Amino acid sequence: MNVEYTGRHYVITPIIRKEVETGLSKIRKILGDRFDANVILAVEKHRHKAEITISPRNGPLVGLAQAKDMTIAVNEAIDHLEKQAVKYKTKWMSKKRSARKSEEVKKWNGHSASPQEELQTVVGISEKTAVPVMVHRYPAVAKTTEVHIVRSDEAIAMRPMTLEEAIKEAHFKDRDLFVFRDSKGKVMILHRTRDGKMELIEVP
């Protein structure tokens, strides 16, 4: 962080400089180090004025204050700046969370998805024990004219699992659909819904 000082009818002393830098260290704890600061200290008609401007990524923040003493003016300007920095950080974090949520909605093919495609398949070790399962797929926004099926055994557990193990395995393999058998041999399906929750389907 670079700090530029300007004195107008005022000589900037080491004490005042230390006050400013101590105050800016509070702002750094909120916004980090990625901003420059411009400090203008002036005296007009026995009034001490402090104007401290910082420039984070999305626009400048300005702290203004005047008092009978420059130390008081600097501290008040820092206080104003600190309040603005907290609002700025809150707003930025809110935008970041909103953007992340949008990405998650896209990932799970939310409201913008085209109508569901249904794929009939069977799950089982042999033809006798195979159980028909309807798999719902939510394709991307772009429609395709051909059905493209890729066979994969990563979505099926080859050994019996507990529910906790199956959830971990589905997360590890990044699967929206995961088929497994419990300790009693019953077929269970984990399905990740569009809002990101895991749904358990028990096959009768």
Features:
9 strands, three-stranded antiparallel beta sheet, single chain, alpha+beta, SHC Adaptor Protein, 204 residues, four-stranded mixed beta sheet, Double Stranded RNA Binding Domain, 3 helices
Explain what you see.
With 204 residues, the protein is α+β, with helices and mostly antiparallel strands. It folds into two domains: 3-107, Ribosome hibernation promotion factor-like (Double Stranded RNA Binding Domain, 2-Layer Sandwich); 117-202, SHC Adaptor Protein. It contains three helices and nine strands, in the order E-H-E-E-E-H-E-E-H-E-E-E. Mean pLDDT is 77; it is low at 111-119.
Our measurement of the CA-to-CA distance between the termini, rounded to an integer number of angstroms, reads 64 Å
- What is the number of domains? 2
What is the H/E order? EHEEEHEEHEEE
Total strands: the figure is: 9
Output the CATH homologous superfamily of the largest domain.
Answer: Ribosome hibernation promotion factor-like
Write down the Rg: 30 Å
CATH architecture of the largest domain: 2-Layer Sandwich
CATH class of the largest domain: Alpha Beta
Query: What name does CATH use for the topology of the largest domain?
Result: Double Stranded RNA Binding Domain
The average pLDDT value, as a whole number, equals: 77
Helix content: 25-40%
The poorly predicted ranges are 111-119
Largest sheet composition: 4 strands, mixed
Q: Give the overall form.
A: rod-shaped
Determine the structural class based on helices, strands and strand pairing: alpha+beta
| Main sheet: strand order | 1-2-3-4
- The portion of residues forming beta strands comes to 25-35%
The number of helical runs is 3
